[in-house]
Amino acid sequence: MTAERLFPGIYTQTPPAITYPTEIAPIHWFGNLSLTETWLGHVTGRPFEWKNMFLVHAWTLCYEEQFYFVVGIFLLMAGTRLLPLLVGTTLIIAARWFLGSPNINSGSFFDGRWLFFAAGFAVFYDQVRADRITWLAVRAFLFLGLAWSLRNPSVFLQRTAGIEQEWLLAFGFAWIILLLHRWDQQMASMRILRPLAVCGVMCYSIYLVHWTVVKPIATAMFHNWGGSFLFTLLVTIPACLVATVLVGLLFHLFVERRFMSAPVPLRSRLDPLPAAMIEPQLVNTAAPSSAAPGRKPLSLLSKSLASAEAEQSNR
Q1: What would the pLDDT profile of 274-307 be if each residue is shown by its tens digit?
Q2: Per residue in 85-135, pLDDT tens?
Q3: Which residue, 14, 73, 94, 158, is the most exposed by fewest CB within 10 angstroms?
Q4: Cβ(138)–Cβ(118) under 8 Å?
Q5: N-terminal to C-terminal alpha carbon distance within the chain
Q6: Strand partners, 55
Q7: Integer angstrom CA distances of residue 52 from 33, 37, 215, 293
Q8: What's the rounded Cα separation, in Å, for the pair 123 and 127?
Q9: Which residues, in sequence order, are CB contacts of 216 under 8 Å at separation 6+?
Q10: CB 238 within 8 A of CB 10
Q11: Widest distance between CA atoms in the chain
């Protein structure tokens, strides 16, 4: 089994990491700068090509921008009644896959990638609503999503990643944060996890720089020392990881941090959410026994978060 098959994200040479700026036509520069390149071809009639992406990994930002736009429209339309629109959109896109798989690289999140975001807001609503119906609905949705991504195990043996791998990561990660939520405070206070917390603060910088750091290092390692499993696992991946974090740190310090908002207290982050985004049947603090199994009422949760924040500030 070749190194490219074992580690396709590191060793494959296509798509290229960076395209020379002079090779990109003005219309594609517009697509890159506006983060519309993945679906712009549906309007211009020019098919999408990876070579027209200046930074290849920006394709994920094109999907992220679509999510922000659509949810923004939903908020303007529905206000606090946002949830039915999110659920309806999710059901429509999921139905497309049950009736027949669409083009998984259409550039629009209607190709199935909306479901990645759906897994995220399912976990969000699970934490801010305390009724049993939400508790059951969220777990049913995440279970079905995970089961659907595993319906054809043979795709995981292919060299190129498909949308099933992406679904598996999205729904798997949603399950992880859902199940580990009750230990958030304990994990946040563990010294051994502080480096991971630092990476979390600058994760967007790490994301933005990682492709242009990893590709040259991995390619050089492969051509000079080969790509055996052990060499890749023990040398190439650690080298890529360290270099990416260091470059991401520099980018965070000199670029991203200049545009970050001032830290918002944890409690003020949590308390406005129900009033702003959720229908009014959130938490019945007078009857905590009606809450879903293992769920803290929201008021107690925000108090415990505020206590953790105060404890950190006193250190």
Answers
A1: 444 444 444 343 334 444 444 444 444 444 444 4
A2: 999 999 988 888 777 665 555 778 778 888 999 999 999 999 888 789 999
A3: 14
A4: no
A5: 51
A6: 18
A7: 12, 8, 18, 50
A8: 6
A9: 17
A10: no
A11: 67
